[in-house]
Design brief:
alpha+beta; Jelly Rolls; 5 helices
């Protein structure tokens, strides 16, 4: 894994990143200006094929949005890993563990070279503290998704 960029609110791909965030349920209610504020706190990471993003039961320390490539969510089973889902461009994962302070429910492994936009826990806390209007909308969606 390597960091491709820090704080991606500006630059040639910012509009594409804003559009990608708009498709994420947690950010769907945010306007373009708010989405750019979220992007300011995100980093782009490059993962190799076969690389593990995180393992089951690890702390939820980041949210991931797949920009390119593929990754699988897997849980260990008696006869090997069971694939829970496959994520590709526009898909996201890790949000509930991050927002609800839960351990990871699965291991995520990249099945091909993958680029993800990543919002780390520490950056999300700062973002939500600086932008309470964004925090309120994200928390509302998280609580709805978790069944609270």
């Amino acid at each position: 894994m390597k960091v491709l960029s820090n704080g991606i609110a500006a630059g040639e791909n910012a509009d594409a990143f804003v559009a990608a965030l708009r498709d994420v349920e947690f950010f769907r209610t945010l306007d373009d200006a708010q989405l750019r504020k979220v992007l300011y706190f995100m980093k782009a990471f490059d993962f190799d094929a076969g690389e593990t993003v995180f393992v089951k039961d690890a702390p939820g320390d980041a949210f991931y949005l797949v920009r390119s490539g593929r990754a699988e969510a897997r849980v260990p089973g008696f006869f090997g890993s069971k694939v829970l889902g496959v994520m590709g461009p526009g898909d996201f994962f890790g949000e509930l563990a991050l927002l609800l302070d839960r351990p990871r429910a699965a291991t995520v492994v990249c099945t091909e070279a993958t680029v993800c936009l990543v919002l780390a826990h520490v950056d999300m806390v700062i973002m939500m503290d600086r932008h309470p209007e964004i925090a309120a909308q994200i928390k509302a969606v998280a609580e709805k998704r978790s069944g609270r």
